[in-house]
Amino acid sequence: MAKLDEPLRKVLGDKTAKVLASGLDLHTVGDLLHHYPRRYAHRGELTELASLEDGEHVTVMAEVTKVQGRTLTRSPGYVLEITVTDGTGELKLSFFGRKGSYIPERDLSPGTRGLFAGKISTYRPRSGRPVRQLAHPQYKVVAAKNAEAAAQEWADEIIPIYPATKGLDIDAITKSVGMVLDQLELGADPMPELTLKRRGMIDLRDAYEGIHRPKDWDQLGRARKRLKWDEAFVLQIALAQRRLAAAALPAKSRPAIEAGILDAFDARLPFDLTEGQRDVGREISEDLALEHPMHRLLQGDVGSGKTVVALRAMLQVVDGGGQAVLLAPTEVLAQQHFRSITGMLGELGQAGQLGGAEHATRVALLTGSQGAKVRKATLLDAASGAAGIVVGTHALLEDHVQFADLGLVVVDEQHRFGVEQRDALREKVTGGRPHVLVMTATPIPRTVAMTVFGDLETSVLGQLPAGRAEIKTHVVPAEKPAFLARTWERIKEEAAQGRQIYIVCPRIGEQEGDEGDVVQEEGERRSPLGIMEVLPRLEGELLDGLRIGVLHGKLHPDEKEAVMRRFTERELDVLLATTVIEVGVDVPNATVMVIMDADRFGVSQLHQLRGRVGRGNLPGLCLLVTDAEVGSKARERLDAVASTTDGFKLSRLDLEQRREGDVLGASQAGRSSSLRLLTLQRDEDVILAAREEATALIEADPDLEGNPALAEELAALLDEDRTEFLEKA
Ligand code: ADP
Ligand code: MG
């Protein structure tokens, strides 16, 4: 009998075990059982040969008519060509290799029927007609072609198609899985019996049987339901434990007080808070009053006014005698936050200075590039408590940075900080934990919020401040050169009216190690445009006479700061930049965003970039310049961005277009991801239900003492490298 942790070698023998280990990284019985079929073939779904299209992944059922080996002049030296037909058309199968090697010559003789799976391409011989072919298809021989009954059975049979590997065809994997299933010995079911009953779920043995050897689609459906549940549930158990543990920690309570700096700030705000800002503000205010650390994720679309919300939270902590830190991912952003916070606070931020108000505090900026003198003063202000608010970059995390009484950590743009960094800040707090507010401008679909960010409470700023002008977005495609010409005209017109323009390129260009997470697609393409390549053309020709500044990550921080300041103070008309301006940059006078090679960016990135314009009451214009062809995926993506400014809609689209692994941040999507069946795109209801059940279970049995089998599952999950993505949250 074989338990889940039994080495495959013992069940399948050395040879097969070796191939499974090297090709698919499967080592134990459990590994193989969790290597689920990628899909299932079924005669009803088979494609007719006559209707095949290039690039399609297909499974066809056909009969071998001709087998021919050919010696090639070039490597690998030999090709076995097999012609098959299904009566509607012909297809050529090519297997390259050494003569007499593992090539399936002996399996596929004329008259044999088989299933063939692979990607269709067209082979164009030097003479004669082009031929449709499958190169190195996976195959499975199907016997008993003349027996009526067998044919019927065969027609109904569900054939699991496994992600195969070199040296093992589908058949061999199917056989191995069958052997393992036949000998399988399962321990106690990790899932609580009551949960299974309540959710109408089958037991684990039936589930493994049903996913690997389904007799019908219903059985397969039940199996998938059960296994999917397990994935969602164990993940949610892990998250529920983290939430509970965090909630049990001590923190200093910072309740709102009357007539303090927060009230004074509210009184001088030049605008009314939106309803969302007030609601979220209340949630945060209540959290801060608790004696356990707040752990909240604040989501709000670009321009929804998160900074004010965060600042109000910081001021409540200052009122409570504490300090707050705002951690920004880049120097540009830190500087900008510093500017806008000191601006909004006015005299309330000038404690100890002439003109400082009654409840005033001090705001300090700490970045890596500051001179020793400035830095020393800032460190002193932080350590003495004179600075109620400290804005900064990673420099804030260094050991020598001390606080008198750190009460709140605000992290802007979470995804760029890891949990170790949050912990580094927490250690600066004695006698408890700081409250933590994480802000993200990339709207997160609910399923992602419940998984990747599952240990945080979430607040959403759903509406933009009133009076926000609209942003128009247009695709400027290669097939309409007049549009591009018009783009440069338009920029000049805006500049003539005193407005400012951003032009973004995917790369710096003419430099090594470029920045920017540009979308790479298959195939040969020219390299994306760099700003250093574009600059001479803009200066010399297209935008002659305009004042153009350049901003990218490789500049010295002082230069960055200087360029940003010149742009903010309208000494520049155009800012030519990489995605360093993606998040947070706030220059209300900027009205046009031109994105070159826009197809090289992801949806969320484009949305973020677009959010840099239309921030005041001036209408914004966003131009997506691309040579992606009509009908291509890239072009669809751009059309989608042009069609809506709803960040949540776009983030769902982004999620659909990305692989799960990218979403979860796991480095090796696929293999070690605990999510094999569960998808963040389609399984919101499963995730929601699992979250409810898991939360209830952990509240009743925090250490899973009454559920040892589940505790074991959890330990296994946390062991694997995908803790990484939990950690990232
Ligand atoms: P984001 O959520 O993208 O960080 P910001 O906090 O930078 O947005 O706010 C965008 C702009 O809107 C800022 O200039 C800010 O001063 C302004 N703003 C914020 N809240 C309001 C409001 N309630 N009414 C009008 N303007 C607001
Ligand atoms: Mg912001």
UniProtKB/TrEMBL annotation:
Residues 287-461 form the Helicase ATP-binding domain. Residues 483-656 form the Helicase C-terminal domain. CDD domains: DEXHc_RecG, RecG_wedge_OBF. SMART domains: DEXDc, HELICc. This is Probable DNA 3'-5' helicase RecG. GO terms for molecular function: ATP binding; DNA binding; DNA helicase activity; hydrolase activity. PROSITE patterns: HELICASE_ATP_BIND_1, HELICASE_CTER. It comes from the Bacteria. Pfam families: DEAD (PF00270), Helicase_C (PF00271), RecG_dom3_C (PF19833), RecG_wedge (PF17191). It comes from Actinomadura barringtoniae. InterPro entries: DEAD/DEAH_box_helicase_dom, Helicase_ATP-bd, Helicase_C-like, NA-bd_OB-fold, P-loop_NTPase, RecG/Mfd, RecG_dom3_C, RecG_wedge. The keyword Manganese does not apply. One of its GO terms (biological process) is DNA repair. Keywords: ATP-binding, DNA damage, DNA repair, DNA-binding, Helicase, Hydrolase, Nucleotide-binding. PANTHER family: ATP-DEPENDENT DNA HELICASE HOMOLOG RECG, CHLOROPLASTIC.
